[in-house]
Amino acid sequence: MSTGSHLSEKEFPGARQIDELCINTIRTLSMDAVQQADSGHPGTPMALAPVVYTLWQRFLRFDPDDPIWPNRDRFVLSNGHASMLLYSLLHLTDVKQVNSAYEVLRESAVTLDDIKHFREAGSKCPGHPEYHVTTGVETTTGPLGQGCATSVGMAMAERWLAQHFNRPGFTLFDYNVYTICGDGDMMEGVASEAASLAGHLMLGNLCWIYDSNRITIEGHTDLAFSENVAARFLAYGWNVIPGVDANDTEALTRALEMFRKVRRTSTTLPQRMVNRSERKRFVWQNATTGGRKTLNSLSRTACASTSAPGSNREAKNSGRLGWNGSKPTGQNIPALPASSHACKSASCRTAGMRAFQFFLPIPRVSPPASLPRKC
């Protein structure tokens, strides 16, 4: 069960080599299974291996011996075609099997033999992750965008459970929801609608990790998709950490640590999380006040409420999900310049490098004043 801490190279010489060995093991398991099945997607699991290893090893609160622990962090692979990535993790962490009666067994949920039968009829490793077929799969993710939408529901469920059952000094529910998504998910309307709702409800326990590899089956995404995704999520009221190198586990760690800090407070992201090439693109002058504004300040001001505080809609949300209805407010919010597309940065243009963006809904500003006794 991860706590977020890890050994550095100074504390344990050879830690980096162990990390690389683990990452490469995930990669080889994934590509060997696809090769054996003569079908599937090896590229995405190989590219995402450092990301999910960092998440599972250093942050994900999950007990392999009790995979249905109610307060476990949820991991959703919305781009389900990369299913071998998840199966590799379930095998290497030795997650235990849960039967139909929700009893935890001693046997492994995904064995090496299961992986050898990847994408075969009746296999516990189908082409896309399926709930109730493979223990450790939190939700079925076949159609793109479905996992993104489901993850919002999971985050809302945590807020509801915490509101109804947590007591001062006695926390039962405080889990996080981590979602891996790609360009295909960002193109789907259901993902956009769910993201808008998450921003509106300020679900600070939700983190989407966006794999922007700019490619589809038909070719480059520019054929049908050229919008500024980061700007769209800022408009939804999300915090955004752009341009994180998928192969840099330390940068990934800093980004995920920032997510956990933002979850607990309404503090915006520090400028050090934006690399130099991105900072140049996301900085502009506020003509009204004469002060500099950055992507970080926009992530706080872009969710200014369009309705008066204490409106009926916000009062209902306050009672249901446990926040007081108030939102960060801001004025004179400038538009992002046309050249600010994060995926056109130098890091994205570098050969062999995938850049990720972390999308984090701004959390509720303060805890609820009271806890309701009824649903």
What's the SSE blueprint?
Elements (H helix, E strand, L loop, with lengths): L14 H23 L5 H16 L15 E4 L5 H10 L3 E3 L5 E5 L3 H5 L29 H20 L11 E6 H5 L1 H13 L4 E6 L17 H8 L1 E8 L3 H16 L11 H6 L1 E3 L6 E3 H7 L10 H10 L24 H4 L5 E7 L14
Parallel strand pairs: 1-4, 4-5
Antiparallel strand pairs: 2-3, 5-9, 6-9, 7-8
Descriptive key words:
375 residues; alpha/beta; Rossmann fold; 5-stranded mixed beta sheet; two-stranded antiparallel sheet; 13 helices; globular
Can you describe this structure?
The chain is an alpha/beta fold and 375 residues long. Helices cover 38% and strands 12% of the residues. It has one domain: Thiamin diphosphate (ThDP)-binding fold, Pyr/PP domains (Rossmann fold, 3-Layer(aba) Sandwich), CATH 3.40.50.970. It has 13 helices and 9 strands. The radius of gyration is 21 Å and the shape is globular. The model is unreliable at 265-320, 322-353 and 364-375 (pLDDT under 50).
